[in-house]
Design a protein that fits this description.
The complex is a heterodimer of chains A (about 325) and B (about 300). In chain A, the strands form two sheets. Chain A has an eight-stranded mixed beta sheet, sandwiched between helices. In chain A, strands 1, 2, 4, 5 and 6 form a five-stranded antiparallel beta sheet that branches. Chain A contains eleven helices and 13 strands. Chain A folds into two domains: about 1-35 and about 40-80 and about 230-260 and about 270-325, P-loop containing nucleotide triphosphate hydrolases (Rossmann fold, 3-Layer(aba) Sandwich), CATH 3.40.50; about 90-225, Rossmann fold, CATH 3.40.50.300. Chain A is an alpha/beta fold and about 325 residues long. The mean pLDDT of chain A is about 85. The longest helix of chain B has about 35 residues, at about 95-130. The radius of gyration of chain B is 24 Å and the shape is globular. The two termini of chain B are about 35 Å apart. The chains are: A alpha/beta (about 325), B mainly alpha (about 300). The interface of A and B includes residues 152 and 172 of A.
Chain lengths: ~325, ~300
């Protein structure tokens, strides 16, 4: 069995607002093995990004994070002091952001922004850093890297900027890369290129990756395992193939059902009815019950427990569906 | 054929030619009022730097002053003397020389005062906006309280408690003007802080103070530049007001405002020139500073372009 890299136990993140407590992440647990790519899927506001920022302890007031432990390489990040945390961020765990238009500082050259990471986390001297910067740019497929190091972000296109962001994320050889919707802001042709690039670089570096997205196509392409989040809870996890082929949770079914298929002769898509409930006013019991086609009275009473299914799957539903889609 | 990186890249030959070719320079040169403002400011700086070596008299040096020369009118009026082109005041001090020396003090207070209040206000604004929480509330509530009084009133109060003096004046003016910087910078900081490159800097493990200096501060400088330029004028004016009211600079070091006050006492006795020339000088100086400040405000605000 592969080595366990990250284990998150019962992570909860609350935001205290004037209108009450918002539980953005509600007791989620998941794990990640070395070299594994975990896809976290969910709608906007389902807590995907907050969960990962909570792992890095980058949640700000009025957010409060609690957990039974966030074990990274056997060390508990939740109890680490701030100084050690600075060493983890970037060096051990780095992030790729959604919008390449704003994730680079417009006032500094590409080179100096990559160098900043190397300055912090490596012992390379000036010359070594320059060489490494150029090497990184070449690695992410930017031609003429020495020249390009002196360019500013506005001289780059969106796809190229995202390549630079990836280069920065990989600069210090991290073990874990958290990619927060890395391709959402890019157009479709560039998306495919960037995904292919990330896939290749991550596997070559032997790193693990958490891929946060609302795009099932992206996840089904890259992830080994999938976790589906809804209203701050993980409702279903499992190996990619099983989750896509025979989703057990009605929400996952709904998500897959709302994707147009080339093969089927559909006149209309089947959207999930209703709206995502406000996190301030979650339904008691299963958060999905008001929208669920199979909802029963028991669903409105109690939060469904996690049920282990065969093949490493688990689902939080009173009535998991076991037949194929 | 040169590659695109060579023709458009940032590896241009010299800094100077880059400045000369920049959009900023072009806009500046095609804006007559900005050029006029700059000329006035450069003129004032020249007056301050070389004026004292050119003017006929050192008005602080009692040996050079002759009471018999008191109230000489400017050239062109009966009884004038070529030695005193703009006339003299009640003690026989040359108005032109007093202007030059007074301008020195006024500009010193304007520029140094703005620098101090800029540093104080910007620091507080950055900290306030970046860290938020209780500290932010505290700083901003103090700012709110200050803003609920007319600033000249606070300065007047502080000066009457401290007494006259250039150092005390700087403290009083800083105490009333840091607020503007702090509030503006705080607002900008909140905006910059939400940008992903700041989050990215946090994610790569950069300590907060380095993020503040390297990533936040450079992105809020435009408003600081604009505010500072306009504030130099405001400071000179505030100093003039305080001096006019008799609580500003010491009488032995007359600034432009104090010169106006000295002249005002005898304005209706027919000695109009003692007050009018310093007054005009202040007006032109502030006008020039404001012209340049307005240009900078429009130029550095991308939404107005």
């Amino acid at each position: 069995m592969a080595e366990r890299l990250l284990e998150v136990k019962n992570l909860t993140t609350d935001f205290h607002t004037f209108r009450g407590r918002v539980r953005a992440v509600d007791g989620i647990s998941f794990h990640l093995d070395k070299g594994e790519v975990l896809g976290i899927v969910g709608e906007s506001g389902s807590g995907k990004s907050v969960a990962n920022l909570s792992i890095l302890r980058l949640i700000e007031q009025p957010g409060v994070v609690s957990s039974d432990g966030v074990l990274f390489k056997g060390r508990d990040l939740s109890g680490l002091d701030a100084r050690s945390m600075l060493k983890i961020r970037g060096k051990e765990i780095s992030m790729i952001f959604q919008d390449p238009m704003t994730s680079l500082n417009p006032l500094y050259t590409i080179g100096s922004q990559i160098e900043e990471m190397l300055l912090l986390h490596t012992d390379l001297d000036d010359k070594g850093r320059k060489a490494r910067c150029a090497e990184l740019l070449a690695m992410v497929g930017i031609t003429n890297p020495e020249e390009r190091l002196r360019s500013y972000p506005h001289q780059f296109s969106g796809g190229m900027r995202q390549r630079v962001v990836i280069a920065i994320a990989l600069a210090a050889d991290p073990c874990l890369i958290i990619a927060d919707e890395p391709t959402t802001a890019l157009d479709v042709t560039i998306q495919a290129q960037i995904l292919r690039l990330m896939e290749r670089l991550v596997s070559r570096a032997g790193a693990s990756m958490i891929l946060i997205t609302h795009d099932l196509a992206v996840v089904s392409r890259m992830a080994h395992r999938i976790a589906v989040m809804y209203c701050g809870r993980i409702v279903e996890t499992g190996p990619k193939r099983m989750v896509i082929k025979s989703p057990a949770h009605p929400y996952t079914r709904g998500l897959l059902g709302s994707i147009p298929r080339m093969s089927a002769d559909q006149r209309r898509l089947d959207p999930i009815t209703g709206m995502v409930p406000s996190l301030l006013d979650l339904p008691s019991g299963c958060a999905f019950s008001p929208r669920c086609p199979r909802s029963q009275p028991i669903c409105e009473r109690g939060v469904p427990p996690e049920i282990k299914l065969d093949g490493g799957r688990s689902v939080c539903c009173h009535f998991p569906q076991l037949e194929n889609l | 054929m040169p590659s695109r990186a060579e023709t458009r890249g940032p590896s241009n030959p010299s800094m100077l030619s880059r400045i000369a070719a920049s959009e900023f320079t072009r806009d500046f040169l095609s804006n007559p009022s900005a050029v006029a403002g700059a000329i006035i400011i450069v003129f004032a700086l020249l007056v301050v730097l070389i004026g004292p070596h050119v003017v006929p008299q050192n008005p602080y040096d009692l040996k050079e002053i002759n009471l018999a020369d008191a109230y000489k009118p400017p050239i062109g009026f009966a009884g004038s003397s070529l030695k005193f082109p703009l006339g003299t005041d009640n003690q026989g001090r040359d108005i032109l020389s007093s202007l030059v020396y007074g301008c020195r003090i006024s500009l010193f207070i304007g520029i140094v005062g703005v620098l101090i209040s800029c540093v104080v206000g910007t620091t507080l604004g950055l900290v306030s906006g970046y860290y938020g929480g209780k500290l932010d509330s505290l700083i901003m509530r103090i700012a709110d309280i200050e803003l609920s009084f007319p600033s000249i009133l606070i300065a007047l109060f502080m000066m009457s408690v401290f007494g006259r003096g250039i150092d005390k004046l700087l403290i009083a003016l800083t105490a009333v003007s840091w607020v503007v910087y702090a509030r503006t910078v705080r607002g900008d900081t909140l905006g910059v802080k939400a940008k992903e490159y700041v989050e990215a800097a946090r994610v790569i493990g950069l300590p907060d103070r380095i993020i503040l200096v390297r990533h936040v501060l450079p992105n809020v400088t435009t408003s600081i530049i604009v505010l500072s330029t306009l504030n130099v004028g405001g400071f000179i004016l505030a100093e003039a007001t305080l001096s006019f009211l008799g609580v500003g600079v010491p009488v032995t070091r007359p600034s432009l405002g104090l010169l106006v006050k000295n002249g005002f006492d005898v304005l209706f006795s027919g000695y109009w020139w003692v007050a009018v020339f310093p007054g005009l000088f202040i007006m032109v100086l502030i006008f020039g500073i404001n012209l340049l400040g307005d240009f900078l405000k429009d130029e550095l605000n991308p939404r107005l372009k």
